[in-house]
Structure formats: C-alpha cells, structure tokens
Design brief:
Layout (H helix, E strand, L loop, with lengths): L3 E10 L2 H13 L5 E3 L13 E2 L9 E2 H14 L3 E3 L3 E5 L5 E5 L3 E10 L3 E3 L5 H5 L5 E2 L2 H4 L7 E5 L3 H11 L4 E5 L9 H8 L4 E4 L2 E8 L4 E8 L5 E5 L2 E4 L3 E3 L30 E3 L11 H21 L7 E6 L1
Parallel strand pairs: 1-2, 1-8, 2-5, 8-19, 10-17, 11-12, 11-17, 12-13
Antiparallel strand pairs: 1-20, 3-4, 6-7, 7-8, 9-18, 14-15, 15-16
Helix pairs in contact: 1-2, 1-7, 5-6
Length: about 325
C-alpha cells in the first residue's frame, strides 16, 4: 500500500470561526497554511440560522452564509482548504505527523487545532426537526430572539442555571426542566435560580417531545417521572443545556486535557504541552463558546505559530510535491 506524504509549514485541523480566522492570519503571514475542514465544514454555525451577535453584520447573517464569507476570505489570502478528516496524529517528534483519511501523511512544522465541540442533545426527533426554529443549544446566542416570550430550558448543572438566569432577563417566563429532584449546579448558582421570580422549576421532569406547528415550537411535553403525569407547557423557545463534547478524541495521549477532554492551553496563550501545537476555539474553551471568542483565539494561534517558526528560523516555503512511499 502506498501513502501520499507532504510537508507543510502550518496545518490547521478543523474549520469554523477559529480555524478560518487562524487561516486568514497564517496566510497573510505567508505561512501557506493547509486546512482540513473535518466532516462538518464551517463547524456548528453551519447548523445555525440567524447570527446577530458577530461584529460586522449590522442586519445579522445566516450561519452558513457567515462561514462561507470566512472561507472565501481565507482562500483569498492563499489558504489551501481541503475537505478531509484527520484520523490520527503523532506528536512524538518534529515535524509533527498527521494522518488524513487514513491515506495521506502530512509532516507539519506547526499544527493549529480548531476542531470545536459538539452540543449534547436529548435525542428526540422533534428536537432536530425544530433545531433553529425554536430549539437551540446556546441561550447567549439565541435568547434575544425570544424577548418577552415563554421558553423552556433543560439541564441541571451550572451551565443550565447560568443560561436560565440569562434568559430570565429577556423572556417573560423560563421553565427549567430538571430530571431529578435536585440540581447538580453549585450552591451559588442554585441560589441565583431560586431567587429569580420568573424561573419556574419543574423537578423530576423528562422531556418527552417538543411540539410545534410545522414551522415553529409551540409547546413542550414533559413527563413527571415520579407521578407519571404528562403535561404540555406552552412555549416559543426550547433550550438544551446538558453540556458539550469537545472534538478532541484523536489527541488523547498526546495533549493535556481536563476531566471533560477540553484541551489545556497555557495561560493567555494557545500553546499546548507540545511545542509547535496550538489549540483554539471550542476545543479548548468550555466557558464562553462564542463565535467571536473562537475567532479571537484563532488569531492568537496563528500569531503564535508564526512566532514559533520565526524563533526557529524555519524556511517559509511549503513542500508541495507529494511523493509515493
């Protein structure tokens, strides 16, 4: 079996706001970056409808359109954008070895990881049917669209509690659906929720179905798992806040991660524990998880990659010629 091999100066794994911003900066620095988009080019925002909180779009923009704009900008400066999926890495030596689609070996002087994270869902068919049409996994992103309306949020941890109190400032009523008879959130976050008058807590409640009129969400059907009673709660928005999973599986054993597999970077930096490997966006950020903060860390990663290469006086040229092994 023959494998194609290639040497590159800067390899970007993953797209989305972090990856594309890193590509723009790396390309303008003449690092001739190569990007592999992953199985979802553009990341989570390609599955989002209106984006109203990204600077530069005064009238808002559709998520897929924004990602297309970022892709075109990265390409304009010379980024080599490829559809492909990184299947394994070897960070033992330098340059770093990366296998793409189990058939292409790349040796990269620097690697920028922008693989993002995936929201956890309940697994309901109706949840996906109305995703973007009343169902959301980000209250900060989409809460504004439900100003003055009734909404529900499912979750019991700190994130759910924080997003419930955020929604309570915008919405008429927030129904918080908690599966057990208690929160998992910290005492401080519980106190905030319990002292917010327009948050109604439904303990021992399982979400059975999200109801709608074919276009938008109109209610949520919940089941009290103690009494067995089903109830329909009229709402216009439904928020899922049961966590995210960072897309970092292939880096296990190579890069430092926290207990939930988010990549650990040095303070005020995108540097990982491996020299020449940088992480940006939601793969290393479990706090903010916004497009604009992801873009900011993408910029940081590209600048740090450029400085890393300059410090080692590496030649800026990318060896484009592939060879058969």
């Amino acid at each position: 079996m023959s494998l194609k091999t290639e040497n590159v100066q800067c390899l970007i794994i993953g797209s989305g706001p972090a990856g594309y911003t890193a590509a723009i900066y790396a390309a303008r620095a003449d690092l001739k970056p190569v990007m592999y988009t992953g199985i979802v080019p553009g990341g989570q925002l390609t599955q989002t409808t209106d984006v109203d909180n990204f600077p530069g779009y005064p009238n808002g923009v559709m998520g897929p359109e924004m990602m297309e704009d970022l892709r075109k900008q990265a390409e304009r400066f010379g980024t080599d954008i490829r559809f492909g999926y990184v299947t394994s890495v070897d960070f033992l030596g330098t340059p770093h070895k990366i296998i793409v689609d189990e058939s292409h070996t790349i040796y990269a002087d620097t690697v920028i990881i922008a693989t993002g994270a995936t929201a956890k869902w309940l697994g309901l068919e109706s949840e996906q049917k109305y995703n973007g049409f009343g169902v959301s996994a980000c209250a900060v992103c989409d809460g504004f669209f439900f100003k003055g309306q009734d909404v529900a949020i499912v979750g019991a941890g700190d994130t759910a509690a924080e997003e419930a109190t955020y929604l309570a400032k915008l919405c008429k009523t927030v129904h918080m659906l908690v599966r057990r008879d208690e929160f998992r959130a910290s005492k401080a976050m519980q106190h905030r929720v319990l002292n917010t008058p327009n948050i109604i807590i439904h303990y021992n409640s399982d979400t059975k179905e999200i109801l709608g009129n074919g276009k938008n969400v109109t209610a949520v059907k919940i089941l009290n798992n103690v009494t067995g009673i089903e109830t329909d709660i009229p709402i216009e928005g439904f928020f899922v806040a049961i966590g995210h999973t960072p897309n970092t599986e292939i880096f296990k054993g190579w890069l430092d991660m926290d207990e939930t597999n988010y990549l650990i970077t040095q303070p005020n930096s995108t540097k990982t524990n491996v020299e020449g490997v940088f992480a940006c966006g939601d793969a290393q950020d479990k706090i903010f998880r916004q497009a604009i903060t992801a873009a900011g860390t993408g910029c940081m990663a590209a600048l740090e990659a450029e400085r890393f290469l300059a410090s080692r006086e590496l030649q800026p040229e990318v060896i484009k010629n592939s060879e058969e092994v």
